[in-house]
Amino acid sequence: RDLPDDPAVEWDTQLLATLVLEHIEAKNISLVVTFDAGGVSGHANHISLYNAVRYNVCKLLWAGCRVLVLESVNLFRKYISFLDVLISCLLPRDALFILTEEETEQAKRAMRCHRSQLLWFRQLYLLFSRYLVLNSLRLL
């Protein structure tokens, strides 16, 4: 209720920061991967998560937990699928993950489980998104 799944709703940073930190400490997590300040698609929930993790970053680093943020790319790069490998290899980043064909299919199957989320533009996403093929990340 306090954290609705809504691309237009900004979540409370301190509440989310507290929840995330409690989970990280309870599970003894040493690596967090989250969205960057752009939220990949400008999704307010994604941006809120980044802000919450950033709010806690000093505590996380002190506790030995590293944070990687997923790079938001422009619309052209977002939808050129595997062709973005060439661009991504030339640009600075701390990590580049290239998914196998099996991993890409698994991600597509997972998205298809959420039928209510599969609007027309997400069908294009399944076909052309570079995020289903590769992901570039940087340390926070």
Would you give an account of this structure?
By secondary structure, this protein is an alpha+beta fold. It has two domains: 1-72, no CATH class; 73-135, no CATH class. It is built from seven helices and four strands, in the order H-E-H-H-E-H-H-E-H-H-E. It has helices at 13-27, 39-42, 44-62, 75-78, 84-90, 101-112, 120-128; strands at residues 31-35, 66-70, 95-98, 134-139. A four-stranded mixed β-sheet has the order 1-2-4-3, with helices on one face. Helix 1 (13-27) packs across helix 3. Belongs to the PIGL family. Its EC number is 3.5.1.89. InterPro entries: GlcNAc_PI_deacetylase-related, LmbE-like_dom_sf. This is N-acetylglucosaminylphosphatidylinositol deacetylase. It comes from Cardinalis cardinalis (Northern cardinal).
- How many strands, what sense, and barrel or not for the largest sheet? 4 strands, mixed
Q: Which structural class best describes the helix and strand composition?
A: alpha+beta
Number of domains: 2
The SSE string, one letter per element, is HEHHEHHEHHE
The total count of strands amounts to 4
Principal-axis shape: globular
C-alpha Rg (nearest Å): 16 Å
**Helix share, percent:** 40-55%
Uncertain spans, ≥5 residues at pLDDT below 50? none
The separation of the N and C termini measures 29 Å
Mean pLDDT: 93
Strand order of the largest sheet: 1-2-4-3
What is the helix tally?
A: 7
Strand content: 5-15%
InterPro entries: GlcNAc_PI_deacetylase-related, LmbE-like_dom_sf
EC number: 3.5.1.89
Enzyme class: hydrolase
Family: Belongs to the PIGL family.
